[in-house]
What we know:
The protein is an alpha+beta fold. It has three domains: 13-56, no CATH class; 59-278, Adenovirus Type 2 Hexon, domain 4 (Distorted Sandwich), CATH 2.70.9; 281-443, Jelly Rolls, CATH 2.60.120.20. Helices cover 15% and strands 29% of the residues. The strands form five sheets. Strands 1, 2, 4, 8, 9 and 12 form a six-stranded antiparallel beta sheet that branches. Strands 13, 15, 18, 19 and 21 form a five-stranded antiparallel beta sheet that branches. A four-stranded antiparallel beta sheet has the order 3-10-6-7, with no helix packed on it. The longest helix has 25 residues, at 33-57.
Amino acid sequence: MATINSTMMTLTPAQIAMLPPAEQQQYMKGLSPAQQALVQQEVQQQIINANRAFMRKSIEKTAYCPVTGGSGTTAAYTAGTTLYYDFPSVPGFATGLLITYNLTVTPAAGSSATYAVNPAAPWNIFSELQVLYNGPQIRTHPYFLKILDQIKGFQRGAQNSVIAGSADSTINSNINSSIPIVVGSGNSWKGKIYLPLNALGGDTVPGVLPVAGVGNKPQLKLSCATNFIGQDPLLNPLAPVTGTSHSATVTGNINVDMVYKDGTNGDSPTPLTLNWQSEPTLQYYWDSPLTPFSANTIQRQTISTKLKHWYIVSVMIDANQASQFAALSNITGFELSPDQVGQQTFINWNISNNVSIYDYYDRVIRRPFGQDLDNGVIIWCAAPGEGVINSSNRNGTQTYNMYPGGFPALTHSYQVGSVSGQSTIDGFPAATPRVETFLISENSAGLKVS
């Protein structure tokens, strides 16, 4: 083998990056540190390009998730129980889960009992959702997935509902049915909830899970709502309104499909490959709640998950009513600060600055997303939907970095006029006033496999 000149590479970095790993390693030994850095940079770019091609060009496929420890594709829904599904073993990478619910909800007539649908329904038929892969990879409330649907782009409907344009009634009834509550009758609640694992975008790798049967076996954990009736707008699907002896019988089935890519493409019989070990991973977090939540004072909560955040969404629950999380007329202001005490601010709406919170709903919600969100929902960060992805949003991609060298604190603050205005109805207590915060965060350590 010819001697390699220490000051001049006989191959370009791109050519070295294309060598088999063993030959590449041998060649690198004869290069200076500066030349090795150039080659490593080129190798990383080659990996990024190949991964992007895999995600964009691979044909999307679907496989059903078997019920853990059982047989078949469906598990019976029972309030208060936990359902487990295994990811199927296929030679590819999971990019999402499609949860299908088909329930019959029968509110009891009681003594002139009437009911209302709470704002998080039907997503809150489950009180928690987890994806387990060497520990919790995802832990969130399914209602957060509704918000993700809505803020992915201009006029995007939750559960793939059609906001404007043609809608077929039969398709609608199976994908995104209504949630009726006729008393004494079996009401059909039917629909689909999609959980994107790579939530930053369809051509991104962070968050995908290998499902080829090597190492950990991913698993989905769904916690069925413990109390189907109650006054908590996030945790209870139905609320008691008037009368007594409120109860509901809920039966039905849940099945889950896995969306995945295995490199099959229309360009060549040769499958594309994915180097997922070189990428960070993406995780969902249900951050520490702000509780107790008091009135007429600025209350602050610091985000406890110290990663790089791509989505930060909070839900204000003032416990004044079950019909909404927090009435807009009750919200005095809110802010996001890069310190513990709000000395500095990133975002400030009407906390000591007389800027109307309706400016927030105009500039931050309605204009970029083309629709309103539920009252009490605050979008602090929705980086994947900003910038060139959505031409009506000119903010650019704005993430919040809490790694060393970033911000040691990220504090969200709120002020409301009143809390705990609910009374006990037919034995159902008032909700707990609080603020729940949901994150999607980039973990630079990458996916842990054992």
